[in-house]
Amino acid sequence: MRLLIAVALVAGLLVPAIPVLAQDTEEIRRDMEQMRKQFEAMQDQYRKAMETMADRLQRLESQGQQTATTPVAAPPVTAQLPPQTQPPGGTPPSPLDLIRPRQPFALYERRGSGQLLFDMGVAGDFVGNLTQSNVEKNQGGSFSGLENLFFPREVEVSFFGQIDPYARAEVRIETGQSSRNGELNIGLGEGHLTLLTLPFGTQLKMGRLRNRFGLLNELHSHDRPFIDDPNVLVQFFGAAQLRENGFEATWVPALPFYLQVLGGVFNGENEVAFGRNTLRHPHATGRIRTFFDLGDFGAIQLGSSIANGDTPEQKSSTIIGFDMKYKYTPTGWQRALFTAYGEYLVSLRDVLVTDSDGIDQTRHRNRQGFYVGADVRPFAHGELSKWLLGFRYDWTQYPVNPGQEWAAGPFIAYYPSEFLRFRLGYKHTERTNCCSYLNFADNGGSARRVDEIFLQATFILGAHPTHPF
Amino acid sequence: MRRMTLLVLAALAVCGPLGASPTLAADKLRVVTSITDLKALTEAVGGDLVEVDSLARSTQNAHDLEARPSLMIKVRRADAIVLNGLDLDDWADVVAQGANNPNVIVGAPGRIDASRGLLVLEVPRSRIDRSMGDVHPAGNPHYTLDPGLAAQVTQNILEGLARLAPQNRAAFERNRQQFLARLEEAMGRWNKLLEPYKGAPVVVNHNMWLYFLTRFGLVQAGSIEERPGIPPTPSHLVKLVNQMKQERIKVIVVEPWGDLKTVQRVAQEAGAQAAVLASSVGALKGTDSYINWVDSNVKMLAQALK
Question: What domains are defined for chain B?
Answer without folding.
Answer: 17-185 (3.40.50.1980), 191-305 (3.40.50.1980)
